[in-house]
Design goal:
Length: 208
Amino acid sequence: MLSYYLCPIYSASTVISSSECSFHCHAFLFMQARREASYPSQLTVSYCAEQISVLNGRTISDSIDVGRVSGFKAAAQSPPFKTDMWEHTTALGRGNYTITLVGGGNCYHGQIQLYLDDQMIGEVLDWYCAVTTYPFIHKVPNVHIAQSGSHSLRGEVVGKFKKSQDYWICLTEIQFQRDSIGDESSNIGVNAANCVTPAPRIQPMDES
């Protein structure tokens, strides 16, 4: 006996056979999997005036030497202010991510807070160093994206370490690393650990 179903892929008034429903459901899942696979597992965005939108503060200069050290190249809003704010929008697949910011730091650098789609992620990232350090890297792990599509990462300067003398945020790139696909965690809005990679190049501070 041939059975018929209201297939969830079609409108509520569409009635098809069970074999047709099974075929279309499998086809739908296959296409959905292909769409998810089309999103890169790793994406690197250059921090530069062309890629980053300034929401508040001065324009981004692409020719900053961190600590005035030749070769320690980065970009930054120049001159810096406590209320500086920038944003980058890109397409990301659903899943669990580690977001990495790469740049430089010294005793003239400030602190920023990251937001993904207007939701706070991770802790405040402090770019202060007693000596000029390059590269200086912060990682924010366990960032969950529930739905594939366009997503906006925003950085806001929120202050500085008490020993810091200014609010510079000098960056070279932003990395999005998809660690897994699924709903294993949901840490948007929850403090996530951030860390600094070892073995940076260090230059004694004698200039701003």
